[in-house]
Amino acid sequence: AGNDVWQYYSGGVVTACPGAQSDHAVIAVGYGTTSSGTNYFKVRNSWGASWGEAGYIRLQRGVGGKGMCNVAEMPAYPKIVKA
Fold first, then answer.
1. What's the confidence (pLDDT) of residue 1?
2. What pLDDT was estimated at residue 71?
3. What whole-number distance in Å separates Cα of residue 6 and Cα of residue 1?
4. How far apart are alpha carbons 59 and 82 in whole angstroms?
5. What's the CA gap between 29 and 79, in Å, rounded?
6. Domain named Peptidase C1A papain C-terminal: which ranges (predicted)?
7. Contacts of residue 60, Cβ cutoff 8 Å, sequence gap at least 6
8. Where do the H-state alpha helices sit in 1-83?
9. Which of 50, 71, 76, 78 is the most interior residue, by most CB within 10 Å?
């Protein structure tokens, strides 16, 4: 997330992420579709509420491969174990 797209993100749906390189973890917390029809994931970053959309970024979904900005490069899911 060290590229300019992340560094200077202030709002909207990211639809291009040139030179994307994964270098820290984020968490996808939701998804949606804009009024113009762009599907996106809502992703929480760790850079605080003053960054992006109150600490979140929206990344276009459905692009295939590792996803927009490599968001699906190393997915992890919780495993619930009964006590």
1. 53
2. 85
3. 6
4. 34
5. 17
6. 5-78
7. 13, 14, 15, 38, 39, 40, 68
8. 4-7
9. 71
* Each residue's pLDDT tens digit, 40-66: 999 999 999 999 999 999 999 999 888
Instruction: At 78, list the tokens.
Output: 């919780």
Q: Residue 41: what pLDDT?
A: 96
- Could you identify the residue written with the tokens 């994964």? 22
Look up the pTM and report it.
Answer: 0.85
**Token pair of 40 as six digits:** 């996106």
Q: What residue segments make up the domains of the chain, in order of their start?
A: 4-70
User: What would the CATH number be for the domain defined by 4-70?
Assistant: 2.40.50.170
Nearest CA-CA partner of 65 in 20, 26, 4: 20
